[in-house]
Amino acid sequence: xxxxxxxRPPTFAAAWRDVLADRRLALEGATSxxxxxxxxxxxxxxxxxxxxxxxxxxxxxxxxxxxxxxxTWPVFVLIYxxxxxxxxxxLLEPRSLFFGCRAxxxxxxxxxxxxxxxxxxxxxxxxxxxxxxVEFFVPSGFTPTRDLFFSGHTGTAVLLALLAPRRxxxxxxxxxxPLIAAxxxxxxxxxxxxxxxxPAFAWxxxxxxxxxxxxxxxxxxxxxxxxxxxxxxxxPVGDVRR
Length: 242
Known about the structure:
Layout: H1 12-21, H2 23-52, H3 72-90, H4 94-117, H5 132-137, H6 152-163, H7 167-186, H8 192-211, H9 222-233
């Protein structure tokens, strides 16, 4: 018996046609995007307030070991390459994309809360990390330096690794996490505790989004597993590939 032909991945048009044809799915998408937009708006309004106040300077024994190195472009390339890959793949799985919007929105709310609750001044010797995406959402386009706890770049990379709907993408983005974490430390953009705490907040946002997901909402990557399932089920008895 010949091996079954694997089911083809859904096309962009087919995936979104189903969403637009289902009022419930369309509403889920609209509310998810609206929640993300609100969270980013709230974050953009908290950052200037945090920036205007002074805070504590932490004694960080890790940062004391070296002088700052400008790694702005490597950080920019790594974070936005991961974002582009995850976003393009999620476009083929709209409900996973909606889930990602809710998870990222939650992480933004976590971040504005922790920044507000932990007034900190930047580490001594930091080199500004000019992020065009962040500056777009921050009024007047200034580069914030007191948006410290927790590291948004590290948290974003971790969350993207959780959200990406293909194994190769999850593995690739996960590989950038330690690189981004090391880079923001080497540039002294964050304290060590900011970077170490970021994965926990990313996981919390992901887990909370899953906990309150609408009924039957798929976990990111579930589509990949479902496409592989027919081939596994149809394998001949005794096939070692099972």
